């Protein structure tokens, strides 16, 4: 397999191609990523400073009986969730991302502000940038079944946002399939008249599907809301998302954050990179993936 050059790496990571090759090597059939020509678009119904915003995440509530879910924990299928969950937005919940394929080589998920910007959103309310934060945040399952996302999870999410009288939603993605699940949810919300902006790091997945508004951060997966332990980065990232929510005039509007993970883009070569794995390592990873998939829940495909 050819080695990427520095110039090649200074482009967004091709997650669809990488994951197709990676899971193909593990013996799995290629995943069919959703794609739509038409993209719904709902303008923000009122000025941002008067709007009620809800936060949607793919992070999972911490459950002490489900094994290691701490910073840098290996993929933990037992920690997955399979139905929409909600919680009060006036406090900081304990949400983790050990159940999904974020970039464990280059980030540890030890700062929830990088994947769950609730505190930053409350600060935006305090500064008068937004009208108010919706009374609840909501968790959407990371689901390889697009049918379940479209027919079950997205309608439930819509019902909860309507109950909260949310005018708009910020959806924050983590792994490649998270990006697709939230893209499908964003489309459903927009069709129902709720404006959305998706914050993510997998540009190809989101743009292939087609969403109204997308804030792209060229960071390792798991950092869609900004750099870890860097409040200024997280606040600036959220502000870009809010500005995009208010200013976009047509669907398929993508804005790229100007922030860089680091000057050297070589970190991009590592994610799901087969040329860095031996045959023995590939076999070990398949066995490990199968074990975690069955832990998740009988009869349900793992992320």
From TrEMBL:
A Gene Ontology molecular function term of the record: oxidoreductase activity, acting on X-H and Y-H to form an X-Y bond, with a disulfide as acceptor
Protein name from the UniProt record: Glycine reductase
Organism: Methylobacterium nonmethylotrophicum
Organism taxonomic ancestry: Bacteria, Pseudomonadati, Pseudomonadota, Alphaproteobacteria, Hyphomicrobiales
């Amino acid at each position: 397999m050819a080695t990427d050059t520095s110039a090649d790496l200074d482009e967004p990571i091709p997650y669809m191609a990488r994951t197709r090759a990676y899971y193909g090597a593990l013996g799995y059939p290629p995943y069919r990523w959703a794609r739509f020509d038409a993209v719904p678009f709902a303008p923000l119904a009122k000025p941002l400073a008067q709007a009620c915003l809800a936060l949607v995440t793919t992070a999972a509530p911490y459950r002490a009986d489900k094994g290691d879910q701490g910073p840098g924990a290996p993929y933990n299928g037992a920690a997955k969730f399979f139905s929409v969950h909600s919680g009060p937005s006036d406090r900081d919940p304990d949400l983790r991302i050990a159940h999904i394929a974020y970039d464990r080589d280059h980030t540890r998920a030890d700062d929830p502000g990088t994947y769950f910007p609730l505190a930053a959103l409350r600060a935006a309310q305090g500064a008068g940038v937004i009208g108010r934060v919706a009374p609840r945040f909501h968790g959407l399952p990371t689901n390889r079944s697009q049918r379940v996302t479209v027919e079950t999870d997205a309608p439930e999410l819509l019902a909860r946002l309507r109950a909260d009288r949310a005018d708009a939603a910020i959806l924050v993605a983590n792994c490649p399939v998270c990006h697709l699940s939230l893209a499908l949810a964003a489309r459903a919300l927009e069709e129902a008249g709720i404006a959305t902006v998706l914050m993510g790091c997998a540009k190809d997945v989101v743009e292939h599907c087609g969403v109204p508004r997308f804030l792209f951060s060229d960071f390792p997966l798991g950092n869609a809301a900004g750099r870890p332990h860097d409040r200024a980065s997280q606040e600036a990232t959220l502000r870009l998302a809010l500005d995009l929510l208010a200013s976009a005039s047509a669907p398929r509007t993508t804005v790229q954050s100007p922030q860089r993970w680091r000057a050297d883009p070589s970190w991009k070569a590592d994610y799901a990179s087969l040329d860095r794995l031996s045959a023995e390592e590939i076999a070990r990873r398949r066995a490990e993936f199968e074990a975690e998939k069955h832990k998740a829940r009988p009869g349900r495909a793992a992320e």
